[in-house]
Records
---
Amino acid sequence: MYYPRYNYYGHQRFQKHPIVYSYPFSSLRQYPPVDITIFSQSVKTFRVIMKQGELLLDKLGDTAFSHKLMDAAQRGNQAEVDRLIKGIGGLNVPVQVRYTPSAIIFNLQPPAEESTDCCTLTVTLKWGQ
């Protein structure tokens, strides 16, 4: 069978781009009106948590305290770790402490009286290989 080398007809036999059918729709999506009250409250609460995190870091900078904390964690004494953290003066937000052989993780939550789950400050500090 012989196929012509050139297109003598001056047009393509098949369309290069098929026709795509679409249904009409509104190109403007409808969004609810913006309400920043919850967001603003979250920012306000997070500022409190950040100040509490600064108190925590200041205490962790004390070498004697850090030694006690790391020693208790290496022994797996979670109760002592929690006691040391709760004993930090001025720290009045709930703090969850987890640790591994290579790091310690602090999760600071909003104060209990606010009863909101708006935000969490997670501080991860490496202390081993």
---
Amino acid sequence: MPMTPEQRPPMMELQNLLISAESVEAFFCGLSGVAAATLTGRTRSTIDCGITFQEGSRRVTVAGSSPRAVRLDQIEQRLGQGPCVEALRTLAPVLLEDVESDPRWPSYQQELASQNCRSVLGMPLDIGRDSTAALNFFASGRVFDDQTIKETAAFAGAASQAIRLVLKINDAQNTVGELRSALEGQTPVSIACGILMAQNRCSQNEAMTILTNASKASDKRLQDLAKEIVTHLSGETPATFFQS
């Protein structure tokens, strides 16, 4: 019988997520689910998890293991107070053990109580960037003991490494996309310049000046005019030698 997410080792779940996620957004949605399932298995109580990012003074909920997780996380971001906000500020785990007895955030705790949420654990993520992030865990009972917090910190460490890798891959993909666009635009321009150099027996700079002036005179984009020149001469549209 296949293991449930709660039964599978968290590291295995993170590895599977890294392999299967098709986007950064999908990864964070999956991560919130893995985090919630991990603590649900550890505490034997239903745990919801939200993920918050902060850049400068702006905080936003980027994912949640359930609609309830997103709703509870957004309450904290709206009020600007609570364990997750404090964890982002201090870069240390912050526990709200009981909304009925903790004196720190009365407005926030009152809203949590109305949502049948009794305890919250904010766990920072070290993502190695100007922005910061945190996992926000919600429970209907007092289930976050010292050992659970310790194990959650270890999970957050592994999750932080996974996030760094995902963001680096995303940066690399964006760079490749920008390079591809640049090459696709530059290829016909370079070929057209070569044609003009041969026809006019001029330098590359002079050919580029001719092409630029013609572009302005015809009110056409430089790349579009270059494509017309190449197509007129060869009957084929130029292509870049850049394969993904």
---
Amino acid sequence: MKTLADFKRRLVVGAKLRVTFHMPPLVIRGNAGNAVLPTPLPEERIVAKVQTNSVAFDRPKATDKPPGSQRWSWLGFPKAKDFAVEDGKAVIYQEGKKILTYEFIE
């Protein structure tokens, strides 16, 4: 896998990926004090639906919702300038900062 097109070709229904978030903890400031939402741990996702502009991932271990579109999370495909392949993993950038890494689980 070298390009965004290669990544899209590998995204078929049933494919398993591990997603890693690269964002700092989120601090929510409020009247009763500050709440800190930690960076989510890496999680396994299964491709549920593929479209020309996006892909839906099923998150069976991340939610108690029943199977189906209610527990899907969507990834709109980035522009090629916001995409890179590093060590065989798909990396998505936003404004020059790494935000997501997708690794195929064979």
---
Amino acid sequence: MQRQRFGSDEGPGRNPAEERRLKRPATESEETGDDDELPPGTRRKMKDTQQKTRPSGSTAAGAGAGTASSASSVRAVLQDFLEQQQRLDAQRQEAAARHAQERLALEQQWRQEMQRLERERLMLEQAWREREEQRRMREEARAERRDALLTNLLNKLLRDDF
């Protein structure tokens, strides 16, 4: 920015700090011209703060370190993702195991209920058979008494006729 204002004065009278400032890329605060109004100690603090907030790898000197930290941050993100997936898988497996246990418990309960109903059915069927047997026995007893009465009656009639 200073270069454009004063033209190209690349003479030997320039100080080294100014040359460094001109060579480095301009930040937002330099573009707005806010540095010129700040005391020198404040500029250094702002520069340190900007470097801390600036993402890794944004400076030319730290490009190698930025790549390494970028790779490590990608690795950390992937590691977090892998751990999250493992936690989700573990949760799914636990849920599936709980579901299987519940299903087995319900199946066992259903089997027990079916066995109880089968025993009840067998008992009712046995009671029905017993009642039927008693009814048949009563019916046979009635038929025998009736036959005996009829036989007696016929015998009496036959005796009286002779």
